[in-house]
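Q: what does this look like with adenosine-5'-triphosphate bound?
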Amino acid sequence: MNVMDTRATSAMLYLDGVHVSFDGFHAINNLSLTLEPGEMRAIIGPNGAGKTTMMDIITGKTKPDEGTVLFDGVTDLTRLDETRIAELGIGRKFQKPTVFESQTVQDNLLLALNVDHSVRGTLFWRGNRAESERIEKVLEIIRLTDARNRLAGSLSHGQKQWLEIGMLLAQDPKLLLVDEPVAGMTDVETHLTAELLKEINKTHTVMVVEHDMTFVRELGVKVTCLHEGTVLAEGTIDQVSSNERVIEVYLGR
Ligand SMILES: Nc1ncnc2c1ncn2[C@@H]1O[C@H](COP(=O)(O)OP(=O)(O)OP(=O)(O)O)[C@@H](O)[C@H]1O
């Protein structure tokens, strides 16, 4: 691919002709996808479509056999390891919340900030002014300001998910990858999560994988449906959900 391609130079994320096979099985098959800076994209698709593998490629956990994966215009992610990719500003939220249950909400956020906690000791450190302001802002976005001193273990499932999204946000990533955030949530929590991601998307580029179509519709963003490791359909939720192939392989089941 020519890196002077305008898509490649302006995109936050640019995948082109990506292939991944596991023992001869083609999990990702000529996958091409572009995410613009500031965009939020919803990724849908049946089990085994390659959604997780695509996230693994972006974060460096899995290396493609072929294809181009560029971040922020020019950085070739296929040459970097997971740590370096995280340092570049790609944050990933896995499906299950993994907060520090015996720490308070606020201390979880402090732990997530990029500081040398081994030296300063998180429990005695309350951050400099910029960091404190950042924590306040994140608490507000994730709606946990009033719960700041509660132990994370005492939060509801939905609140734990929001806290973990907040821990990513504390690091101010350029791109947030969010895997099935509303699985196991109540309808109210699901609605609040859509609001929360829309708020985050005002200042961050977001890619969210989700099966819950009510939630995806509420996000109101461009949708990509993957199937057999490639893009089956892309467009508005109405366009994608009325696509005959999407209905056949995913929605109509
Ligand atoms: N490490 C691996 N070794 C062998 N096969 C794998 C490996 N990782 C993924 N696969 C296969 O690749 C395909 C794509 O899997 P992937 O987990 O990316 O799908 P998915 O769209 O995330 O599905 P789900 O919605 O169930 O999470 C599946 O058939 C899966 O079994």
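The chain has eleven helices and ten strands. The mean pLDDT is 90.
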